[in-house]
Amino acid sequence: MTTDPLLSLRGVSKDFGGGVFGLKDIDLDIASGEFVSLLGPSGCGKTTTLRVIAGFEPATAGEVLLNGREIGHLPANRRPVNTVFQDYAVFPHMNVAENVGFGLSVRGTGARETTRRVAEALEMVGLGDKAKRPVAALSGGQRQRVALARAIVCEPQVLLLDEPLSALDASLREQMQVELKNLQNRLGTTFILVTHDQTEALSISDRIVVMNGGQVEQIATPAELYDRPATRFVASFIGTMNLLAGRVTGDGQVESAGFVLPVEGAGALAAGTAVTLGLRPEDLILAPIGAGARLTVKTTVFHGRSLRVIGRLNDGAEVVLDVQRAASAGLPADGGAAALALRPGAGAILLPA
Ligand code: ATP
């Protein structure tokens, strides 16, 4: 990051007692105006990170800094941070405008300013015409927009979003992802989103923090994570990746199950070093029998424009490849033999064995 971070975690740990560590030594810098997602499997520490930032949970070690100042001692309501939760926690007995204005009235904001800011926030989330509606009469997506408006109306420096879309159905969720991204662009506020959905994280984040077992595995842009996963965990968690056991040959290439491929970084390793080769399904193509690696097709699944082929290589490793339907002429029926090569121009990824 080139600018000074807005929010930093320095060596943050959370020990829940009884040997349960929610977080282990987390370091994280987030710039002003960034959209950052915390992504990882259930129990990896995403929500705990958010709760430590919000002030709902004290860290047992480390510091939380905002603009370079330690805020770990500040109670949640004195931090310039707001949270939107998964279950669109709205007050059911209030109408839309009352819900959105609630936080402002608690802070003693005058009636006129409250009315103006509530109207602005409702416009921002596309509910400008629903101000007087009882929230009980709204759909799930509309309620989540009310929760968003209620959070942004207080103009926090950081907006924390804890799986805000996970209660919505798939198509509404996709639409709301775009809206969330647009909203963040317009506001310029720093957004930190917790999600276990990699597609969601990849599509809306500036950077993604991949977490595993209470630790950070990698922090990178979506494209970097996809193209250059730093660990086996990230490689297998982001998209689909074939992970094949291989060995470095003498000339900077890697040999694996019938493939011999040039791989960036292999030249720096001694010949014979055991490595893992990461190959994306879309980077593999069918080759004439006799060339490339030998493959026995197990299952073919229709994916629209492409066919996902699951097969077995010579050494028994399972491999997944996506064959464009227009290029599927050489594809045998399930049980048949084929050959596999790396698409020209595509790269394999070098990972630890
Ligand atoms: P999910 O996606 O399921 O919400 P998560 O990544 O948000 O998971 P956390 O809720 O942060 O994970 O939990 C991290 C770890 O800390 C888990 O092992 C969890 O069981 C543990 N944990 C979380 N809160 C508490 C608590 N209050 N007391 C004890 N252990 C806790």
UniProtKB/TrEMBL annotation:
ABC transporter domain sequence ranges: 7-238
Superkingdom as given in the UniProt entry: Bacteria
Task: Please name the Gene3D superfamilies in this protein's record.
Answer: 2.40.50.100, P-loop containing nucleotide triphosphate hydrolases
UniProt keyword Plastid present? no
Q: Which SUPFAM superfamilies match?
A: MOP-like, P-loop containing nucleoside triphosphate hydrolases
Database matches in SMART domains: AAA
Alphabetically ordered keywords of this record: ATP-binding, Nucleotide-binding, Transport
- GO molecular function, a single term: ATP binding
Q: Does the keyword ATP-binding apply?
A: yes
Record Pfam families:
ABC_tran, OB_MalK
Q: Which organism is it from?
A: Thioclava arctica
The protein in question is named ABC transporter ATP-binding protein
